[in-house]
Write a structure and sequence with these properties.
about 350 residues, alpha/beta, seven-stranded mixed beta sheet, three-stranded antiparallel beta sheet, 11 helices, binds 4'-deoxy-4'-aminopyridoxal-5'-phosphate
């Protein structure tokens, strides 16, 4: 009976943060940028000729590749693009982690990594961070089928620094080491310059956070041409047209407006530093975030209680019911006004609880 049921592939999917329909909520739960993308993005959208959509998009996204390569001083053959860095990372798992040895990543990290490993039947091992959630390079010395580390780490916000990561890359010349730099623009140091030196290093970044284009879905990888070619080959064995015509143009325009990028980054960083001071005053402790979020716990109240109190008043943050981090809240940095409203609410709430 129903033999097809046995043939269904059963997977445990990643659960993204809520995207509620209500506009009035203060949404600090998925690390989006609170500001609009570069002004040229709107100009392109308004001027876009719908007639163009009868043709397939450029399968190699050349316009966008050149904009990225130009910004980072690379050749086109050193860049791969995908539909969000989730797509780039999924393709990278398939392309580079194709072995019987376990892929290593930290125990506290982006919770999509183990989902991809399971989906693609890739063995993996979670390497524990220390009690302060710091990484120790010597823990990554064992036999492995690849390594992936976000820097700064998510959801802790901690920047491991170039030295420790370089030590891991150097100690593993037979493995591809992926550094997921989704949040690097908010004040950490990118390992991008090291791709010239280490042919096993792949640096992955995204337009979703620092470039305020989460809704368009653009991510990219940078590395030596052989890694990049391998990624295109795997991508082209699935679907050659993943990135649509509009997105390619919007991404190129966003990448070209450096002034807007820098101004808007500085605003987010200033709000983050203001929020840190306020949270400290309110009895929260947290790590030195180099991202657009703060991972904080309260000295008295549980993260779960604060999460629900905030939600009830219309402020959405993220709480992970996971070992070691279930007493923390991840609070994305919104506008100054939004952060002020959150702090005002916490001031009142903590006074009575
Ligand atoms: N890496 C990390 C560490 C993230 O937090 C995220 C955001 N959820 C991503 C990758 C994926 O972002 P996107 O697909 O929007 O580029």
């Amino acid at each position: 009976m129903y033999g097809w049921k046995k043939r269904i592939r059963r997977v445990r999917p990643y659960v993204p943060g809520e995207q509620p329909k209500q506009r009035k909520l203060i949404k600090l739960n998925t690390n989006e940028n609170p500001y609009p993308p570069a002004p040229a993005v709107e100009r392109i959208l308004r001027g876009f000729d719908a007639e163009e959509l009868n043709r397939y998009p450029d399968p190699s996204s050349t316009l966008l590749l050149d904009a990225i390569a130009g910004r980072y001083g690379l050749g086109r053959e050193q860049v791969f693009v995908g539909v969000g860095s989730d797509d780039v990372l999924a393709m990278s798992f398939m392309t580079f982690f194709h072995s019987q040895s376990p892929v290593f990543f930290p125990d506290i990290t982006y919770s999509f990594y183990d989902v991809w490993a399971e989906t693609f039947d890739i063995p993996y091992r979670k390497i524990p961070l220390d009690k302060d959630f710091e990484i120790h390079p010597e823990d990554y010395a064992g036999e492995n089928g690849g390594i992936i580390i976000p820097n700064p780490n998510a959801p802790t916000g901690i920047d491991a620094g170039r030295e420790k990561l370089e030590q891991i890359i150097r100690a593993n010349p037979d493995s591809v080491v992926i550094i997921d730099e989704a949040y690097v623009d908010f004040g950490a140091v990118s390992l991008l310059p090291l791709i010239e030196q280490y042919d096993n290093l792949l640096v992955v970044q995204t337009f979703s956070k620092s470039r305020a284009l989460a809704g368009s879905r653009i991510g990219f990888a940078m590395g030596n041409p052989e890694l990049i070619r391998a990624l295109w080959n795997v991508r082209n064995s699935f679907n050659s047209y993943t990135m649509d015509r509009i997105t390619q143009k919007l991404g190129a325009a966003a990448m070209e407006d450096e002034d807007y990028f820098q101004t808007q980054l500085a605003r987010v960083i200033a709000s983050r530093e203001w929020t840190k001071k306020q949270l400290r005053r309110l009895g929260f402790s947290f790590f030195d975030s180099r991202t657009n979020f703060i991972f904080a716990r309260h000295e008295r109240l549980s993260a779960e209680e604060i999460f629900h109190a905030l939600k009830e008043t219309g402020i959405l943050v993220r709480h992970f019911a996971l070992p070691r981090i279930d007493n923390y809240l991840r609070i994305s940095i919104g506008t100054d006004q939004q952060m002020r409203e959150m702090v005002d609410f916490l001031d009142r709430y903590l006074a009575d609880h």
